[in-house]
Amino acid sequence: MKVTIIIPCYNESDFIEKILDKINSQTNISKEIIVINDGSNEKTTNILNECLSKNKINILLNHDYNKGKGEALKTGLSKATGEIVIFQDSDLEYDPEDYNKLIDPIISDKADIVYGSRFLGNEKGQRILYYWHRVGNFLLTTLTNILTNINFTDMETGYKAFKTEIIKSIDLKENSFGIEPEITIKLALKNYRFYEVGISYNGRTYEEGKKIKIKDFFIAIYCLIKYRFF
Q1: For 165-177, how does the pLDDT look when each residue is reduced to its tens digit (9 = 90+)?
Q2: What is the phi/psi pair of residue 73, to 5°?
Q3: Taking phi first (over 0 means left), then psi (-120 to 50 degrees means alpha), and beta for anything else, what does residue 11 get?
Q4: Hey, which residues does 161 pair with through a beta bridge?
Q5: N or C: which end of the chain has fewer CB within 10 A?
Q6: Cα 224 to the center of its chain, rounded Å
Q7: Could you read off the pLDDT of 28-47 as tens digits, one per residue?
């Protein structure tokens, strides 16, 4: 079973080749690696072109300017040919060694969608960072659970795996981080089988390049309500 890994990338020159090497080291799954260069600077663009020439990337798609994570994911989905899709950030916060955890419930027909939860525990431990990010995540996840009657522990996780036909079946609109709650609400309303697995997480600081901001918290609330009721 082929797995398509979709990687939005915006100005990640310090990390993008490292994460690609980690992905390519996962030799026990058949992979299709799609990277979307979302209007990155020249340094990141040059690294991506070099990685393509070294066959570290199967498909490289380019946006003329930074359109946002949501738009990049939609661009990648349009080219995905694997039976399973995994969303992968272009830094080192999420570990490709967890791929088998993500896809096993789908392969064994226990789930249609699998979320990698940072709060279910794992053998590698977690880097401890921002308290208020944890509070924000808890509030967003709780609101999601109220709106969907599904008991998520980590709605905002960046590690999600889907049967490709299912993620392609919904009409995605958001072009920013708002695509995360949009996906969750739209799929939950279709009564698909969700699964969660514990994953490792090596969060980074804003000085190290973390991009999510406080405004994204309010965008997420807006998207949860919008796609649940309107």
Answers
A1: 999 999 999 998 8
A2: -65, -40
A3: left
A4: 86, 114
A5: C
A6: 17
A7: 999 999 999 999 999 999 99
Helix (H, G, I), strand (E, B) or coil at 197: strand
Q: Is the pLDDT at 193 greater than 90, yes or no?
A: yes
Question: Is residue 185 within 8 Å of 142, Cβ to Cβ?
Answer: no
Of residues 11, 30, 9, the one with CA closest to residue 20: 9
**Distance between CA 162 and CA 114 in Å, rounded?**
6
Domain containing residue 150: CATH number: 3.90.550.10
The rounded radius of gyration (Å) of the Cα atoms in the chain is 16
DSSP notation for 131-191: HHHHHHHHHHHHHHHHHH----S-TT-S-EEEEHHHHTTS-----STTHHHHHHHHHHTTT
Q: Please report, to the nearest 10 degrees, the dihedral formed by the alpha carbons of residues 48, 65, 61, 12 taken in order.
A: 30
Question: What domain count does the chain have?
Answer: 1
pLDDT digits (tens, 9 = 90+) for 106-145: 999 999 999 999 888 766 666 656 677 778 889 999 999 9
Mean pLDDT computed over every residue of the chain: 91
Segments forming the whole domain that contains residue 80: 2-229
Identity of the residue numbered 53: S
What CA–CA distance (Å, rounded) separates 197 from 157? 11
0.70 exceeded by pTM: yes
Q: What is the pLDDT of residue 118?
A: 87
Q: Which of 128, 127, 83 is nearest to 109 (CA)?
A: 83
First to last CA, the chain: 36
